[in-house]
Every structure is written in structure tokens, then in C-alpha cells.
Amino acid sequence: MRVWGWILYGVLAAIGLGGFFLRFATGHQLAGYGSYVPWGLWVAAYIYFIGLSAGAFLLSALVYVFGVRKLEPIAPLALVVALASLLMALVTIWFDLGHMERFYYVYLRPNFRSMMAWMVWLYTAYGLLLLAELYYALRRHLPRYVDRGGITGFLARLLVKGRKTPFTQEEIHRDEGIIKVLGTIGVPLAIAFHGGVGALFGTVVAQDLWHSPIYPILFLTGALLSGGALITAVYVFFWPRKDEEWRELSLFLGRIVLGLILFDLLLEWAEYSIPMWYGVGPEFKALWSTLFGRFWYVYWVFHILIGVVVPIGLLLAWGLRGRVKAIGLASFLVAITFLAIRLNLVIPSLVHPKLEGLMNAYRDHRLVFAYLPTWFEWSVVVFSVALGFTVTYVLVRILPVIEGKLLKEVA
Amino acid sequence: MPRYAMAIDLSLCVGCAACAVACKMENEVPPGVYNLWIREREVGTYPDLWVEFRPEQCLHCENPPCVPVCPTGASYQTEEGLVLVDPRKCIACGACIAACPYDARYLHPAGHVSKCTFCAHRIAQGRLPACVETCPTLCRTFGDLDDPESPVSKALKEAGRMDVLRPELGTRPKLFYLNAPSKKGLTREKEVRHD
Ligand code: SF4
Ligand code: SF4
């Protein structure tokens, strides 16, 4: 089992590195997006990853800010996943820029009327906050590792300045106070940056489908669901000790995931049914093509069947009746297929010409109102995924993330 | 400060695409992308049938949704009302392309966003935009909207009818279509559907 996992990782990493080098060697030439459909898979993947990050972070905030003690064991892991997903999101959207080397212009000459400029600034603040929170969550364990060799020892010496005496109860209490403050800042920050991504789309008047006040809310619910499901899947499958506590916490997480699936579905019903009800208008057309157009299966098969029906079935029939692996599988499916929702959010709106007739003005393979991600675009997304996994894995190996210990000590 | 605008008299347009060619050359627009295009469509039903040509390009909206979305300020509006892109500041994020309700912007192969500039470089020299200068039927007029004597103000005053694209959005375009032939009372089903 483990061997197969590593083989899979090796294959994904190889594909990802291929995409990474092609992106630098060939720019955007191999991508399927163009002038009429400027955003494609990478933008969808970016909002998907950033949602995972916001969701994982908000889950950790349940512990650090709202004192849900039950979830305490997974809180540092949730922070690590949040950090890794943030990195995945930023790398993916960075690849999407035509001028990657100019990204820092958004710091040097920001236009604060632009939602996108806000996003970049908020992500930066959030990234720093995550690092700080992780530092205060983990440093109490570090004195034990000061004498170690390797990177763990080096980090331990660096971060607690060589201190060997264990942290006192008082000091731990103080650190928890700091984390609470950081988390309290982080919650509105996460709501701002992820609701903000929703607003980045929602404020675009030219795109009828996006221009909806429900978007920020929809994004936040989606973040909670996809991030929560990811953490649940990771916890169920990879938590080193499968004891009674693990069972109970898995069941608790399973119930949260089920509730969020249903709530997200309710919002989606509002998002789809209201513009579609009378069967007129441009939103109707775009949504209709999402549901019954060429890529109908993205909605029905990947989202509704594998992302909603099967997980709900798994949870109700087995998972919540005590078969914990079923909870893991259901959550895994929810987390993975969430990309389908993001694709259906970004692309259908863009593939509709805004002025009828433009389509026929010129014929050129680059001027088409159709979009299908190319294998090159997929390989770049695979790169981001492999990167996120690598970062998470390395961090749990070199830092005491799981129950205050390194991975190999608990395994 | 002038407020530049353009008007195109559709009843005079013969669809020769000379403006599109002139624009391509003047602005060195690379193959596969366009600042200006001619939309063609059939109007009416046999035997009451004709073809309408409508040149389209950036409308230099007075209230341009493409400008505020730009994170770096690469998209901007000049005091004379021209909406321009500074290719040196553009990070090619594509936000402005998604935000333009007229699909007027494109990704330049050099890695930045581009579009019609109303030939800002020629205006600065006191010349007319290349498309205006080249049009064989004189259907394009250009000038200062605030000057009642400018060619564009006069053309607007004399026109039988005046349209802008998607006025309901409130973008206040400064490219006006005059005397659109298809709007002269023809309301057959096909026509209605296409409008
Ligand atoms: S037509 Fe499009 S690109 Fe031109 S000013 Fe208006 S919104 Fe901007
Ligand atoms: S593509 Fe360039 S001009 Fe357009 S919004 Fe992004 S940075 Fe601004």
C-alpha cells in the first residue's frame, strides 16, 4: 500500500515537473485559454486551492478561537494544510500571469479599487499570520529537539534560541493566548480574502453569471466544505494512531462534512434556480449550458454524482454508523470533486460571447469561444498538488505537528 | 481638455475592412489578435434582405469597468477620456479582459493586454486615428465631444438615429453608431431575435 502511494507520488511529481518546465520554456503557447476565454483551469484551480486553505484555517480557528477542544489534535495539522494549500494557490495563479516576473508590481503600485490587488495584500497578511500561528502552536514542543541533528534540530535551535528547559504551563498558556489573538484576527481575514475572491468574480458586471451577491457567501461555504473534507480525509486515512479518540473525532468530522454538503447544496439551489426559473436571460443560457451543454458531465457526474450523491450515501449508509473509512472516502471524494464546481464557476460565463457576432468576425484558432484545458494545463496543476503534498509531508516530518511529535515518532 | 469620441455612420459602411487593415499596420497588431473587427450579419428574410456591417473596437467608455479591476494600474484613463494599457505595468492577469462587456481586449503575444487606443500616438501629433483617415466612405468621424464644431459633434447632431452598444450597463461608451439601417422599422421575428 505504502509502496504504491510513493509510486503514485513519483509519477505525479514527474508529470508536475514536466509541466513546470514547459511553463517556463513555452509560456502560454500550450494552454487552451486565449483572448476570448482569458481564464481557465488555472484560475479554477487557484480558487479551489485557496478555498481549501481558508477552510482548513477556519477549522483550526474552531479550536484556537472558539475553544472546540474536541478538534484540538488536528488543529496544528490544519494550519499546515492551510499553509500548503495557500502555497498551491499562489503558485497556480502565478503561473497564470502573462508576466510572472512582474507580480511584485501589485505591491509596488497597487490599485486598491481592484479586487485582485486586495486579494494579493490579504494573502500576504494571511500567509504571515499562518506562519506566526504555527510558530506559537509548535514552539512549546521544540526544546525537546534542540539536541537533535539535522533540520529538526537546526529549526528547534533557531526558533527557541537553543532553549532546553521545557515550556512551563504558564508559558504555554501565554502562547495559547497569543494564538487566540492571531486566530481572532485570522477569522475575519479568511472571511475577507475568500469572500473577496467571491467578490472578485461577483463584481464583474460584464459577466452575467458571476455578477451575483451570493458569490462571496457561496465561496465561503465552499471553502468550509472542501477544506473541512480535505482535513477529514487526511485525518481518517493518515492519522498515525487509529484508536478510540480517532474514531470519535472522525465521526464528529463526518457529521460536519455532511452538514456542509447539504448547506452548500442549498446555496447552489439558490444560485441556479433563481436565474433559471423563468427560462430567460443570459444567466439562464450560461447555466443551461453548464447543466446540459457539451460539458454536462462536469456538473452531473463529477459534482452531483461523485461529489454529492455518493458521499452522502457513504456517510449515511456506513460512515456515520461507525465505518470510519467510509467517512474518509466520502470526504476525499467531496474534496477532490470540488474542482468541478470551481471549473463550472469560472468557465461557462467566459465561453459566451458578450456581443453576438464577434464569433464570426474573424476565424483564427486562437479566437474561439470554447475552452478545454490542455494536458499541459493539467500537468501544471499536478505540479501544484505535488508541491502541496511535499510541503505538508516535509513539515510533519521535521516539525512536531502531530500530537507534539514528529511523524516518525508517532507512526 | 478635449473629450475624444468617435462616430461610425453604419448607413455609409460598405464593409471593405480598410479600417481594420489600416489599424493592423498602424499599430503593428500581431497575427491572430485584433484591435478592430467588422461584425457582419444578415438582416431580414428573403426577399427583403441585406447585410449590415458594424465595425467594433474598444468604445473608450467614460465609465470603463476594465480600469478599476486592474491590480497594478496598468489600465488607465487619460484626462482626454482615452482608455489605455501601459504594457510595461501589465502583469497580464486577465482581469480587465473578463471585465470588458464588449470583448474589446485581448492578450498580446508579447505577454500583456492590448486593445484599440483610438491611435493615441497619432492624436498626440494632431493627426486622426488611422481607421478614420483611411475610411473610403467617410463613415467614421472623430474629435472632441465638448466642441460643438468638431466633426464628431456635428455628425452626432445631424444623425437620424444614434446608438451605443449595451447602454443599459452604464459604461457610457464614446463610440457612437449612427443611422443603423437594421433599426429602421424592420421587426420580423429573425431580426428581433438577433437584436
Ligand atoms: S470597451 Fe471595454 S476595453 Fe474599452 S473602455 Fe470600455 S470596458 Fe474598457
Ligand atoms: S491584464 Fe494587465 S491591464 Fe489587464 S487588469 Fe491585469 S494587469 Fe491590468
TrEMBL record, chain A:
Pfam family, one: NrfD
The organism's taxonomic lineage, starting at the top: Bacteria, Thermotogati, Deinococcota, Deinococci, Thermales
Chief location of this protein within or outside the cell: membrane
Subcellular location: Cell membrane
Gene Ontology CC annotation, any one: plasma membrane
Similarity annotation: Belongs to the NrfD family.
Keyword Cell membrane: yes
Organism per entry: Thermus arciformis
Membrane topology recorded in Swiss-Prot or TrEMBL: Multi-pass membrane protein
Keywords in alphabetical order: Cell membrane, Membrane, Transmembrane, Transmembrane helix
Origin superkingdom: Bacteria
Protein known as: Prokaryotic molybdopterin-containing oxidoreductase family, membrane subunit
Transmembrane segments: 7-25, 45-67, 74-95, 115-138, 181-202, 214-237, 249-267, 297-320, 327-347, 375-396
InterPro entries per record: Electron_transfer_protein, NrfD-like
UniProtKB/TrEMBL annotation, chain B:
GO molecular function: 4 iron, 4 sulfur cluster binding; metal ion binding
Domain 4Fe-4S ferredoxin-type, residue spans: 4-34, 49-80, 81-110
Pfam short name (any one): Fer4_11
Entry keyword annotation includes Cytoplasm: no
The keyword 4Fe-4S appears for this protein: yes
Keywords of the record: 4Fe-4S, Iron, Iron-sulfur, Metal-binding
SUPFAM superfamilies, sorted: 4Fe-4S ferredoxins
Protein name: Fe-S-cluster-containing dehydrogenase component
